[in-house]
From TrEMBL:
Its EC number is 4.2.1.113. The keyword Metal-binding applies. It comes from Phycicoccus avicenniae. It catalyses: (1R,6R)-6-hydroxy-2-succinyl-cyclohexa-2,4-diene-1-carboxylate = 2-succinylbenzoate + H2O. Pfam families: Enolase_like_N, MR_MLE_C. The lineage of its organism: Bacteria, Bacillati, Actinomycetota, Actinomycetes, Micrococcales. This is o-succinylbenzoate synthase. GO terms for molecular function: magnesium ion binding; O-succinylbenzoate synthase activity. The gene is menC.
Amino acid sequence: MTVPAPDALLAAAHVVSVPMRVRFRGVIHREALLLDGPAGWGEFSPFLEYGPDQASRWLAAAVEAAWEGWPAPVRHHVPVNATVPAVDADAVPGVLARFPGCTTAKVKVAEPGQALADDLARVAAVRDLLGRSGRVRVDANGGWSVEQAADALAALAVHDLEYAEQPCAGVEELRDLRLLLARRGVEVLVAADESIRKAEDPLRVRDLGAADVVVVKVAPLGGVRRALEVVDACGLPAVVSSALDTSVGTAAGVALAAALPALDHACGLGTVALLEGDVADPSLLPNEGALPVGMVAADRALLDRWAAPPDRAAWWQDRLLACHGRLTAGGPR
Ligand SMILES: O=C(O)CCC(=O)c1ccccc1C(=O)O
Ligand SMILES: [Mg+2]
């Protein structure tokens, strides 16, 4: 991929700060730099704490979207899951109402400061609303030790889990957990999310037998094409998920999900519903449990409405330039 010159990137950039409806991943304002390029719109929104190596992959994904475009889709709609943040059980109906027609829900668990009882109550509430035919998965974001995960999943399994996403932080831990669950007769599949971030990761996950399913995100992997290679190398069923993107970044995830040869699970791409505002009109929101495939353009009025304060816009422009330097210096793959 040829990376545009710094001036071309800066000239194409719009920085926004969008409030979240509910705190998610500690984030209450989602900041993003949108790029208006010849092939369409791209989103550059690495989380604030990410260093330049990680963040430059997000830039590669944004440049792919805005200067190159995506591979051809093999489907026109992508089924999505509802995403339930670590809210109180009584807030679950309000969250699920934002995901019309979704029959799969992903529930955040193992939130710091909360107890297993909170997770059990939240998951029970979700199962209750979806009914027996719904699918319920949990995401611990690596918050449990192997023992904690085995105990928690044995308890949560009464609600019939589709899988548990990143129950423990490390790849070896995921492998050990799978062995322990099998020994204890707990039938819960394990998905790797944070363990799939770098080019060499998926092969490690596969070779160690650390997961049954892989979660892939376009931006951290450096674009739709790179993510397709990762899934192919891994040889495991894949679920595409968002990084809490605006509709522009979400469309890249939809493009990946639409280009995958096989797609057996709902994707975590309904998260625009967790944002209070967005850059596109209409927003890329689930309808009848699915999203349409296609490029999404940002809207000028909405870019103005959610424009970031000048100091934050300058911070993002500096970050863009730093990442540009990494990418053109050969950067991480
Ligand atoms: O998968 C989903 O349902 C939504 C996406 C999501 O949970 C997420 C969004 C931003 C950062 C991390 C994660 C995650 O899956 O851990
Ligand atoms: Mg996850």
